[in-house]
Write a structure and sequence with these properties.
One of its GO terms (cellular component) is plasma membrane. The protein is built from 11 helices and no strands. It is an all-alpha fold. The longest helix is centred in the C-terminal third of the chain and has 32 residues. The protein is globular.
Length: about 300
């Protein structure tokens, strides 16, 4: 009798992840582990909805891509699908970060997910700096080569620090902040903030003719500048042991993984898939004309 009571009171029977627990408790435990229920839900729901949206629009998108024959759009759409699935897995497997024995799997998943999203960021910026809506194979090659080199170097450096020096880049610990880790993230965010800030400066300078005159691109750059500036401040505060800095960093991370891919789709791909009657070049020409880019021709 005493042995039965000891088994009943053992911690294994109270563990929500145990096979004897109900599926509801197991699901809640999986969602609430590590960063908390609302944090994980804020990541999973938007990323899942975006993947479902891509799935529902897939047939129409493939037809549009086959008719448009834009190398950049086809390649970018394929990359978007791959990164969206990686990001969904990353959002759903947040519990791995705090699970013993899953550190290696979590680091590898985080490394490839962040590198994939950075590739989309860098390739879009590289496209912007070309100054036109190019669709040829040469423009695609130039954009993807530059993006691949930058992201490949970034991935290599992160892998060296992660697996070579044991710096926990993707595992957060508020009680013992790792100075080297947050210093690396400060440099990373500083570079991105400087790039987006420079493009914003170009939009308000005499060099704005080099950039697409689409308001959507300008709004995208402004949003990414603000997000990276906030993340930069958060990393600096967290590295100095400020609790508010870690909260701000978590908030920027949730916004990035939950909303960046839909923002990129709206900015870069939505018009291509929705435009039915007119050629896309005519739409962009009208927007450039409304923005006053051709007023100097009459002077």
């Amino acid at each position: 009798m005493q042995s039965i009571e000891s088994i009943t009171d053992s911690p294994f029977t109270q563990n929500p992840n145990n096979s004897s627990s109900s599926p509801v408790n197991g699901l809640y435990g999986w969602l609430s582990e590590c960063h908390g229920f609302w944090h994980n839900l804020a990541l999973i729901i938007p990323s899942l909805l975006f993947v479902l949206f891509l799935g529902f629009q897939a047939k129409k998108s493939f037809q549009k891509l086959s008719h448009g024959r834009s190398y950049i759009m086809i390649s970018y759409y394929g990359c978007l699908w791959l990164v969206s699935l990686l990001n969904l897995a990353w959002c759903c497997l947040q519990a791995w970060e705090c699970t013993p024995g899953k550190e290696m799997a979590w680091n590898i998943l985080s490394l490839f997910t962040t590198s994939g999203m950075l590739f989309l960021e860098v390739s879009l910026v590289a496209f912007l700096l070309q100054g036109n809506y190019a669709s040829g194979l040469e423009a695609l090659t130039r954009t993807f080569v530059v993006s691949g080199l930058i992201v490949g170097l970034d991935l290599l450096l992160k892998a060296i620090y992660l697996f070579g020096f044991g710096v926990p880049l993707f595992i957060d610990n508020t009680e013992h902040p790792h100075q080297v880790k947050w210093g690396l993230w400060v440099v990373h965010r500083l570079v991105l903030t400087a790039i987006y800030g420079f493009i914003l400066f170009m939009y308000h300078s005499k060099w704005r003719e080099r950039l697409p005159a689409r308001p959507a691109f300008y709004k995208y750059i402004a949003i990414m500048f603000i997000l990276n500036a906030l993340a930069l401040i958060a990393c600096g505060l967290t590295g100095n042991g400020a609790g508010f800095g870690f909260w701000l960093y978590s908030a920027t991370l949730v916004c990035y993984h939950a909303l960046y891919l839909p923002l990129l789709y709206i900015t870069f791909l939505a018009d291509f898939f929705q435009e039915e009657d007119l050629h896309l070049e005519n739409v962009y020409y009208s927007e450039m004309k409304d923005a006053g880019f051709f007023d100097t021709d009459w002077e």
